[in-house]
Amino acid sequence: MVVASVDNLADERSKAQFDVGAMKIVWAGSKHVFDVTDRMARIVASDPEFRKDNRTTLGRKELFKNTLRKMAHVVKRANELRLTEEEASKLRFFVDEPGYLDLHWGMFVPAIKGQGTEEQQEKWLPLASRMEIIGCYAQTELGHGSNVQGLETTATFDPKTDEFIIHSPSLTSYKWWPGGLGKVSTHVVVYARLVSGGQEHGIYGFIVQLRSLDDHTPLPGIIIGDIGTKFGSGAYNTMDNGFVCFNRVRIPRNHMLMRFCQVTREGNVCLSDVPKQMVYGTMVYVRQTIVSDASWALSRAVCIAVRYSAIRRQFGSQDRGIETQVLDYKTQQSRLFPLLASAYAFRFVGEWLKWLYADVTERLQANDFSTLPEAHACTAGLKSLTTSVTADAIEECRKLCGGHGYLCSSGLPELFAVYVPACTYEGDNVVLLLQVARFLVKTVSRLAAGKKPVGTTTYMGNAEHLMQCKSSASSPEDWLKPSVVLEAFEARAFRLAVACARDISKFSTPEAGFAELSIDLVEAAIAHCEVIVVSRFIEKVQQDIPGDGVKEQLQILCFIYALHLIHKHSGEFLSTGCITPEQATLANEQLRTLYGQVRPNAVSLVDAFNYTDHYLGSALGRYDGNVYATLYAQALRDPLNDTVVPDGYEEFIRPVLKQTMRLSRL
Ligand SMILES: CCCCCCCCCC/C=C\C/C=C/C(=O)SCCNC(=O)CCNC(=O)[C@H](O)C(C)(C)COP(=O)(O)OP(=O)(O)OC[C@H]1O[C@@H](n2cnc3c(N)ncnc32)[C@H](O)[C@@H]1OP(=O)(O)O
Ligand SMILES: Cc1cc2nc3c(=O)[nH]c(=O)nc-3n(C[C@H](O)[C@H](O)[C@H](O)COP(=O)(O)OP(=O)(O)OC[C@H]3O[C@@H](n4cnc5c(N)ncnc54)[C@H](O)[C@@H]3O)c2cc1C
User: Fold this and answer.
1) Least packed by Cβ within 10 Å: which of 91, 117, 508, 554?
2) What pLDDT shows up at residue 320?
3) Are 391 and 416 in contact (CB under 8 A)?
4) Where does the Acyl-CoA oxidase C-terminal domain lie (predicted)?
5) How far is the C-alpha of 111 from the C-alpha of 119, rounded, in Å?
């Protein structure tokens, strides 16, 4: 059945004022990445083994087995098609189902690459890449996650046998949460307190075999299982997040990842000449990948909400004629278009962060550790900012789709449930923002000592100006000047950071001040992270961008992104004196104009994400716009509709009806 709604999207597409094909390349990052991504997405979409529309109706056991089947199929297809690492990782991505492969490739392998010696890499990486072993990453414990220094698991060196004894001394020391651990992994990188010669030497990673490679049973001394069902139907329940208790499990000495710290045969602990934080390297790597992933999740939700808002009509007609597309309501636009702009903003900052990470890695390899604090602050801050915004945005997109957004067939409830733990894993978002704040306060105090700030804090070098400047915006159009926008963001961030540093110094100790002012510090950290995102977006739109109208659309989105933040944080922009109430009003006026400019292009701007219907997994977000027929078809497929008269009628409905009839006769 083709309904009128389908035409809506064709109409919308005909209004586009830019080259959608060229925008697809900009979104992907390059023609090469576009081609690979497009091919992998289509392979997944066309393979019935990767069907996912029944996920929310399956029980946990069935769901998990289903994921195991898909993961095995991924591995099989990757081998059959001789996929490169890049292609295989895209293939896994489009399968769109959290599973042990994410942790194997996303954390176990990177941990060995980052923290293993060359010899250790030569031993373990081929086994892992051929998947002769399956690995995961176990850092968090029942009692401690954020506080890594508080981990209790011990790795005690026994010089008699040349082994480490891995031990969980208490219930709170059980490893708890690692994905892939509960039921699948054969090996794990465990983080534990290194003890040698009766002394503690800090937290390090150790490779431990968990299960027999013959029959998958846990090895002696290991108690292991799944931690239980998680939030939402389907969602992250495809993953076997697990617990493990080690009862004096012995591993060979060379199973300690020894790139940054070696334990000799005699038990001497030799630290290499590198900062101890290098042990946290896997987290930095993964945080960086999470920023890129945020733009995918956000753009997916926005794609669904934009297409559906073009289809959905409510009110506005006289005598039952055609109603208004909800996308035409300014309130809908003011909720949706900043999210569309944020998706593009996060995509570009994610690409930049990837570059930064590669640059820092190269420097670290050359024993230059100077950029490590900035890399930590950027990855921690941007991970926190982008995941918090994305989680909230998915929920906002659900509401933007009205009642139908609440149906699992909209794809949004499951997307939210899968995505929201990103605010917690790889570092709780508030804890990470406090790390950024620590970095900022240090930068401000170094500034006072005459040190020049570098990297993303370079703007703070313009201290005198940033403390005094008053915005020159005197018309709505002035808010389209990159220099005006940037100055406001930089001044707000700098003034907030300086105020925190100044107020901390009034306390008896910096620690006391930091603890007491942590609410302000978190706000200063967010302001700094927003400077990074806004300035990267501005930089992007100032480059040469091929394709008719592409640059113009990105400019519109860039200013929507910046001006909606000025509106959102107007309290901070005003209280720090960076802008006046009149200038805030002008910014809002400009924002409204920009919404009008993006409106005819909205559907094409989400088409540029190039998502398949399989990946979107949404009746509301379908490319062809055939929303209502799909909703109906999916409702009919619900297990509850297998029979017309429900199971339970005889036992529970009929007796009630009978009882009611009896009562009414009385
Ligand atoms: C291509 C495919 C990719 C696929 C990707 C797949 C991803 C799969 C995703 C799957 C989903 C979920 C997996 C989830 C996994 C996990 O969650 S693993 C567990 C993660 N755990 C955490 O993140 C814990 C968070 N806590 C911490 O990081 C630290 O404990 C914390 C930073 C909060 C504090 O550390 P302390 O040692 O106590 O440090 P502190 O005293 O505050 O600071 C000392 C000093 O060190 C600096 N620092 C801290 N961290 C780092 C770092 N990572 N790098 C560099 N420097 C760091 C800190 O700033 C201080 O510096 P200063 O100069 O003394 O101020
Ligand atoms: C889906 C999922 C997958 C995961 N996968 C893995 C995995 O594969 N491997 C692994 O090792 N771990 C994994 N984890 C664990 C994850 O890394 C931790 O949950 C995370 O680091 C947060 O730690 P926590 O749970 O101890 O939170 P807590 O630190 O207990 O946080 C609780 C609250 O306290 C606040 N808080 C804590 N410290 C401070 C502070 N200093 N100042 C202010 N507020 C503070 C937090 O903001 C939060 O509101 C996973 C978690 C989830 C949800």
Assistant:
1) 508
2) 77
3) yes
4) 482-658
5) 14
Ligand 1 neighbour 374 (Cβ under 6 A): no
Q: Are 131 and 101 in contact (CB under 8 A)?
A: no
CA distance 587 to 559: 10
In a domain, 333, yes or no: no
Give the residues of the chain that fall short of pLDDT 50: 1-3
Is 179 labelled as part of a ligand binding site? Answer: yes
- Around 176, how many Cα atoms within 13 Å sit in the side-chain half-sphere? 16
Whether 568 and 647 share a structural domain: no
- Cα(561)–Cα(36) distance, rounded to whole angstroms? 29
Looking at residue 365, what is its pLDDT? 87
Predicted confidence (pLDDT) per residue in 118-176, tens digit? 999 999 999 999 999 999 999 999 999 999 999 999 999 999 999 999 999 999 999 99
146 lines ligand 1 (CB under 6 A): yes
pLDDT of 273: 85
**Cβ–ligand 1 contact at 615 (below 6 Å):** no
Domain that holds residue 497: 448-607
Catalytic (active site) residue 426: yes
Residue 198 falls inside a structural domain: yes
Q: Are residues 514 and 560 part of one domain?
A: yes
Give the residue from 248, 273, 298 where a domain finishes: 273
What is the amino acid identity at position 111?
A
What is the distance, to the nearest Å, from the Cα of residue 619 to the centroid of all Cα atoms in its chain? 24
Characterize the bridge pairing of strands 163-167 and 249-252.
antiparallel
Q: What's the pLDDT at 321? A: 84
- Asked if residue 658 and residue 593 are part of one domain, the reply reads no
Query: How far lies 28's CA from each of 49, 182, 348, 355, in Å?
Result: 26, 35, 10, 15
Report which secondary-structure segment, H or E, holds 660.
helix 654-665
Are 549 and 474 part of one and the same domain?
yes
Among the three residues 592, 607, 622, which one is the final residue of a domain in this structure?
Answer: 607
Q: Are residues 660 and 550 in the same domain?
A: no
Give whole-number Cα distances, 97 to 66, 216, 236, 424, 595, in Å.
10, 23, 8, 19, 35
Nearest CA owner, ligand 2 atom 36 = 431
| 595 and 645 housed in the same domain | no
Q: The CATH number of the domain where 134 resides is what?
A: 2.40.110.10
Residue at 103 is within a domain: no
Instruction: Evaluate whether residue 391 is within a structural domain.
Output: no
Q: What is the pTM of this model?
A: 0.97
Tell me, yes or no, whether 475 and 598 share the same domain: yes
pLDDT at 41: 98
Judge if 121 and 162 occupy the same domain: yes
| Tally of domains within the chain | 3
Task: Tell me, rounded to whole angstroms, the distance of Cα 660 from its chain centroid.
Answer: 53
The residues facing 156 across adjacent strands are 165, 195
Provide the pLDDT for residue 317: 77
